Amino acid sequence: MANPEALNIMVLANDYSKVHAAAMLTAVAATYGTPIRIFVSMEALAAFHKDPAIASAISQGPVAHKIMESGGHNFIELFRQAKELGDVTLYACSMVMDLYHWTLDDLVDVFDHTLGVAGFLSMVEGEPTFTM
Length: 132
Prior knowledge:
5-stranded parallel sheet; about 40% helix; 5 strands; Hypothetical Protein Ychn, Chain: A; alpha/beta
């Protein structure tokens, strides 16, 4: 059953600012008790890899550099905080994981499950869903 109060975000872009914005939205929404589901796919998934050489390939513009210089929380820390604050579930795209032969053990420990895009879209049908 659709939950119009839920927040669903598909994070697809190889762009630090978009991934960070998704994490900030998630952290804030979690404090309001909003159920949140995040689906990370395409080039964005590499940003969550444990191997710094893979994770650092994410595009970083001026705002990303300022965030890092300021010592502010990075998107991984924000997603972890959001999970502590509320009902937050993160899904890693099973297709991308299969393409690279990754498992959840290859990614930082913020993901709850792997899921395909069809499964995610079916799960969030009728609910607000944003793409970044």
